[in-house]
Amino acid sequence: MQRTVFSQRYFAIPDFVILLVIATAIYGVVSIAHEWRTEFHPITQIDLSVRALPYYTMLSAVRGMVAYFISLGFTLVVGYAAAKSTTAEKIIIPLLDILQSIPVLGFLPGLLLGLVALFPRTNIGLELAAVIMIFTGQVWNMTISYYASLKSVPAEFGEASRVIGLNWYQRLVKVELPFSAVNLAWNSLLSMAGGWFFLIPCEAITLGENEYRLPGIGAYMDVAIKSGDTRAIVLAVIAMVLLILVMDFVIWRPILAWVQRFRLEDVGGGAHVEPLMQVWIRESKILHRMKMIYRELVLKPRRVRSRLAGEVSVDAIVKIRAPWVYSVAYRIYRFAQLITRSPRVTRVMQMTLGFVVLSLIFFGAYQLFSILAKIPPATWIVLLRNTAWTFFRVLIALLLSSLWAVPVGIWIGTSVKRIRVAQPIIQVLASFPAPMLYPLALGLFFSLGISFDWGSMLLMLLGVQWYVLFNVLAGAMRIPKELNDALLLMEASRWARWKNLYLPSVFPFLVTGWVTAAGGAWNASVVAEYLPYHGTILKTGGLGSTLSVAIANENFTLFAASLFLMVLVVVTLNRLVWARVYRLANTRFKMDL
Amino acid sequence: MNPAPLIELNHVSKSFTLESGAEIKVLEGVNLAVQEDEVVALLGPSGSGKSTCLRIMSGLIEPTAGRVLARQKPLSGVNLEVSLVFQSFALFPWETVYQNIALALEPMLLPAQEIRARVKKVIDLVGLEGFEEAYPRELSGGMKQRVGIARALVMERPILFLDEPFSALDVLTADTLRAEMVKIFMDKKTATRSMVLVTHNIQEAVFMAKRIMVMGIHPGHIRQQIVNDLPYPRDDQSPAFHRMVSRIHALITEALMPDTPTLSHEVSHQPKPTHKGPPIETLPNVQIVEMIGLLEAIADQGGSADIFELAHDTGKDFGRTLYLAKGAELLDLVDTPKQNVVLTDIGRHFVSGDINVRKRMLHELFGALKIVQMTANLLRRDESLRLPIQELIDQVGEWLPNENPHQVVDSLVSWGRFAEYFGYNDDTKEVYLDVGQETT
Asked: Does the CB of A297 have a partner CB in chain B at under 8 Å?
């Protein structure tokens, strides 16, 4: 009732906001298109005045969104392929595992040099390189989670759609996408945050002699840091916070609220507050008009009018049109499926494919080895020592994160009131790219007398603590109330409740947090151990700084060696250590009442 | 009978491979034909492969051996003459009632008004008017299943499969829906020509089906076909109905709970042992505590009760109750002459004792079982009296080749724990002989 009154009196507000959003989006796309087509100019002069900042922020936002849509497309195609074909699965999943452990900067030299060489005249190569690097910071977890969702579609849904006779596209749209929607939305949110993390090196990079800089908030920050302009640094931080808040308000909140309808379990409690933006979207007259136009012009003609003759039969199961990209991809897949129908052909195909993959691996390994062989033993010793240093920092960062995030996460997660207040705040804090805070944090550390060696560890902590907090919070929210009540009735002390209930029940979640945080910390070491600051460059012994130095000096041998070591360590730790802890956590401490 | 069956199974068998690599036969040598204009019920306890049978006929899974014919042609892929109603409803929670039903018409690309007309027709038929815009989560179980039935009917396919359609519902709702389902079928307002019903509920089978295929276990097979010519609509209070139910009762009891020769005093009927010594018993997959509950229920009825009344009174299905009775019989706590379950003297003593008396008695009775003694000997081979559970599973697989060894060992451990005979440590995955020692 109240809402209709509200919307009648202020009918302009929703439309105004939505028009603003649409206009900004169009302006952003036009501006970026303009930037892409300008003549090749590797170094954009960055204007450090406040007035230039909104434009830069918008350009970065558009890069992030473009990268996100590429990520989404990649996810929908690759995740689908991995879930539907066992052969594809065997190749894609381990590959994603490795790609996930490569820090964004690891992709940089190849991408940058390749794309600039491909488009020597316009800035499109440089822009594309930036977008694709942001993409590599977003995409992997999305793809893996989409694959996992597709694999866990309940069996009876699959049976129902087969009996009904849905074709692959109808099944995708009506069953599989809705089922994956909640996961996909949450991972999109996380991915967006992951993409921002390396925004500075994506927009401003020194590769040997050559410097590259694109107009954007990351480059703005880079210039501000290098010139030691604290005012500009603070301004950039504020602009970034605003960008995250606006995106949270305009995009993520409505989306996360909207995907609630795709939950499998009943959503209990009517206390759900509808995000304001969702209300506006619903009440906007402009959007309503646009929807009508779409329905009249696009949907209606698509309905096939011809009535199929006779009773329902196999012939009546006709295919409807799918977007052509999916269509082409699926045709190829179906073609492959058809020619591999006979087991012997399948066998031959799989062996051929296996052979190709193996030879590629051998070739790659040989190439890598021939590069690595050039490195003298003394350098290896330094490399290994640096690996040990970074390993140590990662461990301490995890430990410190856990020390504060576990109690705080449990404290927040055990009260509905506290969750409601804290969750949106944490969400925004966690989305903020920690490297943008590094210069300010370092200033603080130095004034406290903390050296960069220790400081860089704290910088790592800054980025990864949220993973721990998020997961502990999720675990704490699931602590069964009955168990808590039981302990309260026994008059168990606070410590006894923590020891016997809270800590064991969040443990599996904590492990998930550790795994993600550890991977993130290894990647963050690239920017946390090597940092421009007030005109100089700070560095400390570590694998991340070695990688950064290698990029800055265009030393590709060292680059290959340090990247190889990092991937090796992360993947090995994941496989050997974390997987085991994870299994233990999920058998011993799993809550099934 | 019509000469051309809609669906036919010829010597169909199905095996699944367990994670451990062992093969489990769930269905063997099944012959079945579904004719036009009839309702066939597949009736059997869990593990008789009735759901598997249904899924093979619908083309959702392929048999390991044998042939599936749809209108006399070999079936490849999903059988598009079949629609299926699920036990768990399988409704899409993100679609409204209307959309869930309309989804079934999606593949046909009908014009919008045709879709509306057909959906409206089935919504009327199953009584869902007014719920069109509701989401499944807003509906009770009974209403959800109405949507499930409507979705199956709207496709207008000649064969309707019902996979335990009413077993997730409360008794009253199930009765109502069952009667409505029969009425819809008899009225012939839908395209449905034949129905196949999977159930473990004897009354349900007798109420709905013209032919009842009674299925047995180890591995799943059709034991017997019973033709049920009672006229529709059937009255479940009529003497004829009761006679039919008792007939099936007797058949199932005989199959699952054969009267032991010592009880019947008819030594000549004793089957000749196929191998030396007493046979190795298999343990039914039930919990001791549940079994004690059954014994107490029998004691409440004066120490003797009809197995089917017992099932009805305790609210369990007859298959489960039979397994419980079999378990109790194995431990000499009850005798099972015909359809009755009678407490033995041991059983009476057991029921009257407190928990410690019961545990002591169980320890002895359980220890007297052949499979328990063999397991105990196996454990004594090692000084620590321990054995990895996987080795025990493998061993049981050899002793009882026709059983699922995982299930048997599960029961062995859970009974053994209760009887303080065996223990099991999930961290080390070892089974040990419980000799009262402190475990670390």
From this structure: no
